[in-house]
Amino acid sequence: MNSSAPSFVGGWARGLHPRLAGVLKRQVAALSGVIGDELVAITLHGSVAMGCFNPEASDLDFLVVVRAALPKPLRRKVARFFLHRGHDWPPKGIEMSVVRRSVASRPSTAPPPYEFHAGTAAQTRFHAAARPGGFHDSDLPLHFAMARARGRAIIGPPPARVFGRVPPVLIGRALRHDFDWSAKNVEARTPDHPCRVPTYAVLNACRMVAWLGSNRFLSKREGGLWALDHFPQESCPVIVAALLEYRRAKSAPLVEGRELRRLMDHAAARLAEAGY
């Protein structure tokens, strides 16, 4: 284990709330000590890297890149770290994957393998106990691409030097996988009468369609604002409600169930037109 202090990237905390920056600095320094010399980089992605982190609604997304496969004893140490220090993360928790440098730099297979994942306590315990070598995640190509385009390095090289270019077909498949999961939930849970807006499903659909047309990676907030100018006009009340709800939970008006389903149908049609 490397006991020396980690080398944080200059300016890594620029624009972050001081309390969040303090939490990240403490946690990353401790995690770096656990992983030691195997650590290559720790990169933020998602809302915290794109400047729209909401403590009430956002989890903390980051990727940990290591030199080689994690031996089981080290994997268990990493698991203990996340299980014992879970109270220090933001209220919505974290989504963190450990990947080998060779996987991050050449993301040419789907789904890519990973070494460890921490999210819920159950997920963390599972990955500590499971046999190594069998973990794969179809969402990782999207995470790699977003980290490369808009990630923020805390430790290690800039994201564009850590994460290789992801083939668009892998990004499209990952978007399709995530959208199908959201669409099933919307279809199963959305009544015909007014209902609360499913913020994640709506704003993810918006930024997914934005990527299809421009190859730009937008935050949920940016995707919603983009969609107000590019989606059918009847979808605008649903999008506005999702943006309000994303900014502050339980602040949005109810939306019509049929309009919500039309928005999801519009996004599905754009995916199909693009061949996904």
Apparent shape: globular
Q: Taking strands numbered 1, 2, ... along the chain, how are they ordered across the largest sheet?
A: 4-3-2-1-5
- Secondary-structure element series: HEHEHEHEHHEHHHHHH
* Unreliable stretches covering 5 or more consecutive residues: none
Strand content: 5-15%
Rg over CA atoms, rounded to whole Å, is 19 Å
Number of strands: 5
Q: Tell me the major beta sheet.
A: 5 strands, mixed
Characterization of this structure:
The protein is of the alpha+beta class. Helices cover 51% and strands 10% of the residues. It has twelve helices and five strands. A five-stranded mixed sheet has the order 4-3-2-1-5, sandwiched between helices. α3 (72-84) links the parallel β2 (60-66) and β3 (94-100). α3 packs antiparallel against α5 (121-129). The protein is globular, with a radius of gyration of 19 Å.
Summarize this structure as a short list of keywords or feature phrases:
276 residues; alpha+beta
Tell me the layout of helices and strands:
Blueprint: H1 18-35, E1 39-45, H2 47-50, E2 60-66, H3 72-84, E3 94-100, H4 101-105, E4 116-118, H5 121-129, H6 140-150, E5 152-155, H7 159-162, H8 168-189, H9 199-214, H10 220-230, H11 236-247, H12 257-273
How would you summarize what this structure contains?
With 276 residues, the chain is α+β, with helices and mostly antiparallel strands. Helices cover 51% and strands 10% of the residues. It has twelve helices and five strands.
